[in-house]
Amino acid sequence: MSSVDPNPSMLVIDLRRAWGVVVLRGSLAVLFGVFALVWPGITAVALALVFGVYVLVDGVGLLMDAFRNPDKSNRGMRVFGGVLGIAAGLIAIVWPGITAAALAILVGAWALVTGIAEIAAAIRLRKQIQGELLLGLAGLLSAVFGVLVLLWPALGAAAIASFIGVFSLIYGVVLIALGLRLRKLASP
Fold it and tell me: Which UniProt keywords apply (predicted)?
């Protein structure tokens, strides 16, 4: 059995489909960030519900990417991140009364795993597309945020909301920039 390079036209088709999902993920992160910053005193219950919906949708997006993307080398991490996102989202929706510290641990674990998956994807894509640096930057931001939240989970609900809001805004803007870059690269 011989190894065959992926068809370049297949990569372009995949980028055309992928850019919209990336921009959608970034837009949802920005919206979530604005919501968390505008109402920093929001209760842990409401924050858990909003986080749950966001992470559930993001997890579904990661799973879609894992199975639609012809590059199978990083599929396991994307599937793991997607399943973790869906599980974290469902837990936050079903049990919204969890404490701020428990929510922080959940957010931190999700951000760390998602960040590692995105860094791995950026490393893998560095020879296929330009602009993978943005994906690596998004992954680094996510991983650093995850570690910081895991180190200090006892922050108050308002502080967590503000911290999450700032992270979500920056992360969302980076994902939107990446999605637009992918769209530009996919254009004929």
Answer: Membrane, Transmembrane, Transmembrane helix
Cβ atoms of residues 47 and 156 within 8 Å: no
Residue that wins the pLDDT comparison between 166 and 128: 166
Q: For residue 37, is it within any domain? A: yes
CATH number at residue 154: 1.25.40
d(CA 22, CA 34): 18
pLDDT > 50? residue 20: yes
Scored b (16 or more CB within 10 A) or e, 106-116 reads bbbebbbbbbb
Phi-psi region of 162 (alpha: psi -120 to 50; beta: other; left: phi over 0): alpha
Whether 171 maps to a domain, the answer reads yes
Has residue 19 been placed in a domain?
A: yes
Binned at pLDDT 50, 70 and 90, residue 157 comes out as low
Spatial contact of 174 and 33, defined as CB atoms under 8 Å apart: no
> Residue 2: inside a domain, yes or no?
no
Q: What's the total number of domains in the chain? A: 1
What is the extent of the structural domain holding 91?
Answer: 8-186
